[in-house]
Amino acid sequence: MSNEKLTLEHLSAYLPYEIKIILGDGEVKTVIAIREWLGWCVTYKGEHGETNIGLKVVKPILRPLSDLDVNQFLQDGKMYSALDVLYPDVDFTNVDTRYFYMKKAFQSIPLNINYVDFRFLTSNHFDVFGLIDKGLAVSIHDVANYTGA
Q: Residue 4 contacts by C-beta under 8 Å, 6 or more apart in sequence?
């Protein structure tokens, strides 16, 4: 675990794309705003209207970069992986080519990619800042088993 903190910079990249957070009790909410209110906090719609909660007690729910290789995007009636969408001219049927691009994706955090690719990844809630490994975010695959750690 790292002693880093979740920051405005981390969350703001995902804000236009309905990023979900998990609270300490495992409840999942959709962020509607980030505000400065006695420190930076996220705002979500609660049972009694809008609720503000500090960044220290929430974790965004993100896809790990290992999901880049999973077929999850539907285009023209066919399922594609994020790699296929990001690099449409590359033939990923070759295992060595797929391995090279996956290794490239994990090589550096934050990623060294262009803005269009960054927007694609953040709009699909991929962990472009390495927050899951730092304990600052929860993998989408671990939400059901989240214990608030």
A: 134, 136
